[in-house]
Amino acid sequence: MNDSFTTALNTQKATTNWMDVIAHNMTNIYTPGFKEQQVNFKTFLGGAVADDYDKKMSQGKSTPGTSNDNVFLEGKGFFLTKTKEGKSVYTRLGEFTFDSEGVYRAKNGNTVQGYILNDKGEIMQGTKPITADLYQETALKGGSLDIPTTDIKLWIDPNNGKFLGKYDEYEIKNDGTIIGKADGGKKTVPLYRITTRNFHNAAALYEFKEGYFLETAESGKPVLGVGEIRSGLLELSNADFKGNISYFQMAKLQLEISNKLISSNKELLEEALRLVGS
What we know:
278 residues, single chain, 11-stranded antiparallel sheet, two-stranded antiparallel ribbon, elongated
């Protein structure tokens, strides 16, 4: 059994780590897409030790974005983006914009993925359309359709300045459909649908960079996302300011107690050494 001195040292170290996490959460209260870190503790005879950090994956509040290209996912799920190597990266930070070549990209340069639609707004799986009813039914059941995605590109014709050479402008609908608009909005044609994915255990996703996640064995395979997409908005941090203040007060008290225990044990050790040496 470890003595009280070792227990106090272990608790002091774990509490310091806890306070660092709390401070990180509080400094990112207004950071778009930030997910609050939560510390788990394992207790044993030698004291409390900080276990792996978890992410609180709940939805943050919406805030006006910097462009109408920005999107906010209201509900569960993640936007699907891909690196230039074709690796799938998931994010809720919809700070997307069309680049100079008309490619829809995330802030980190990844391409935002979408489905190609036919004139009826149905998702195309090869040469066959998938009805909206089938897609919705599969999504609600937490399943996944094997549908290929593609980079979303609204190429602008340099000769007339129109999107894809046909449409004066575009609009992002609540289901993620990007429609081309012409003739003053009288003509509308569905072009793409922004792809969303969900996970049965989203908390187990690996966050390799703040706000960007990779699939893991624990998270499970991606399934269809559910929720509505709002254009012109971004998701704020989901960190709870009041909650983190409470945690900080608890951690501060725990650290003070640990420091007092260390100080008391130090004094007892010094007194013991003095008695032995006298």
